[in-house]
Specification:
- The protein is an alpha+beta fold.
- It has one domain: Translation Initiation Factor IF3.
- Helix content is about 30%, strand content about 35%.
- The chain has helices at about 15-25, 45-55, and strands at about 5-10, 35-40, 55-65, 65-75.
- A four-stranded mixed beta sheet has the order 1-2-4-3, covered by helices on one side.
- The protein starts with a strand and ends with a strand.
- The relative contact order is 0.26.
- InterPro entries: TusA-like, TusA-like_sf.
């Protein structure tokens, strides 16, 4: 999987991971992948729901040492 941009949202509380993800997605072209690193537990549900509502594709979600990593493909 080729990642176009990495967003570090570690240490940010809701709603900041979503706000920063939206902003980062604006810089990407359709089909490009954004990798997001977050520590806010609510980000798992929030980012999954946000991706779905925007027509984006959540490709993968991994949890490692309290850091969640998301890979979202822009619609």
């Amino acid at each position: 999987m080729e990642v176009s941009k990495v967003l570090d949202a570690k240490g940010l509380a809701c709603p900041m991971p979503i706000v920063k993800t939206k902003k980062a997605m604006m810089d990407l072209d359709s089909g490009q992948v954004l990798e997001i690193h977050a520590t806010d537990k609510g980000a798992k549900n929030d980012l999954s729901a946000w991706a779905k509502s925007g027509g984006h594709e959540l490709l993968k979600l991994e949890e490692e040492n309290d850091v969640m990593k998301f890979w979202i493909k822009k619609a």
